[in-house]
Design a protein that fits this description.
Elements (H helix, E strand, L loop, with lengths): L5 H16 L7 H8 L3 H12 L3 H19 L4 H7 L5 H12 L3 H5 L9 H8 L18
């Protein structure tokens, strides 16, 4: 596939920004494709070419990134964190968290509170990588 155009990049950025803002909300491919003004199939293909990962993987990483922060900076239970960041199943949350971070949420939490450094440094240091294997299986035919 050829390199996306500037217009295409803007469309994908619009959808990615919506994912960043509303990561905890139920998001699906049809809604995101409408935001980008493209078909669902074109959206998935172009998003992957533009950002190097599928919309599903991107959304999972954003949710796990936020969960990592909450697990180390709040007293919320793992179940509460799971629901807060947009997962509807603790089992799925734990599986995805373990795949991305390399350990279950309960073990990650035992590391204790985050060090007192500017949050931008902490978030950059703790951000999960894009090369971590995560199941791409969507929860529904058109969902993420």
């Amino acid at each position: 596939m050829s390199r996306p155009s500037e217009d295409s990049n803007r469309r994908m950025l619009r959808a990615r920004d919506a994912m960043d803002r509303s990561y905890a909300e139920p998001l699906d491919v049809p809604t995101l494709a409408r935001l980008a003004h493209v078909s669902e199939a074109h959206f998935i293909r172009t998003f992957k070419v533009t950002f190097g990962e599928t919309p599903n993987r991107y959304l999972q990483r954003r949710r796990i990134e936020r969960a990592m922060f909450l697990l180390r900076s709040s007293e919320e239970t793992v179940t509460d964190v799971c629901m807060t960041v947009g997962f509807s199943s603790v089992g799925t949350f734990s599986r995805v968290f373990s795949e991305i971070v390399g350990e279950p949420p309960s073990v990650y939490r035992k590391r204790g509170p985050l060090a007192p450094v500017p949050s931008c440094f902490a978030m950059a240091w703790l951000r999960p990588g894009t090369n971590t294997a995560v199941s791409e299986k969507p929860t529904s035919a058109t969902g993420l």
